[in-house]
Amino acid sequence: MNIFYNEIVGDYLFITLEPVEGPFTYETNGDIITIKKGEKVVGYNVKGVKTLNLESKGEVKLTEKLVEEINALLQEKGLTTPLEVDLSPKFVVGFVESCEKHPDADKLKVTQVDVGIEKLQIVCGAKNIAQGQKVVVAKVGAVMPSGMMIKDAELRGVPSKGMICSERELGLTDSEEKKGILVLNDDYTIGDDFFKEK
């Protein structure tokens, strides 16, 4: 789930429950617009949220307290189903357990990456990806500095759950010279939040 606040278009909170492609249908009930893909609810646009005193514009960094406040406001506005929010970190340290050639693409590799609480299959096109590396993994649901949201994907017929990141993709450099994924040293712990204070 991702939440964005936009005061410019009229004090709106945009809530994406699930990153999916349209077409969508929209149902308006008071200040809440429910967004559906078929019969499934995939998001809400909520008007009139200034009482939340959000500190930032754009993507909202969620905390347990803020989720409680948002759910209370949504309930006041008539939404009976509370938001269930995964507050686990989305940019984590991973360990590449295996790295094999993609069966149908010369420039892609299929990796198995341990991110602590689970193992993810991620298809990666970086030339410097290799077994035994510690890397930064953007998990499904992560929003990149570019604004791109990470979704479940399939690359040339192989499922991929997340993205192994470069320094540029993480917004750590804008250098054209920094190509390939960011390889971490052994000081990093598998499964840790990459952006936490060290």
Could you walk me through the main structural features you see in this protein, from its secondary elements to its overall organization?
With about 200 residues, the protein is mainly β. The protein is about 5% helix and about 40% strand. The chain has one helix at about 65-75, and strands spanning about 1-5, 10-15, 25-30, 30-35, 40-45, 60, 90-100, 105-115, 120-125, 135-140, 150-155, 160, 165, 185. Strands 3-4-5-2-1-6 form a six-stranded antiparallel sheet, with no helix packed on it. Strands 7, 8, 9, 10, 13 and 14 form a six-stranded antiparallel sheet that branches. The protein has a two-stranded antiparallel ribbon with strand order 11-12. A hairpin with a 2-residue loop joins strand 3 (about 25-30) and strand 4. The longest helix is centred in the middle third of the chain and has 13 residues, at about 65-75. It is elongated, with a radius of gyration of 19 Å.
Total strands: the figure is 14
The largest sheet has its strands arranged as 3-4-5-2-1-6
Biggest sheet architecture: 6 strands, antiparallel
Q: By helix and strand content, what is the structural category?
A: mainly beta
User: What percentage of the residues does DSSP assign to strands (E)?
Assistant: 35-45%
- Quaternary structure type: single chain
- Taking pLDDT < 50 over at least 5 consecutive residues as the criterion, the unreliable ranges are none
General form? elongated
Q: What is the average per-residue confidence, as pLDDT, rounded to a whole number?
A: 89
Q: What's the alpha carbon Rg, rounded to whole Å?
A: 19 Å
The N- to C-terminal Cα distance equals 26 Å
The run of helices and strands is: EEEEEEHEEEEEEEE
> Helical proportion?
under 10%
Number of helices: 1
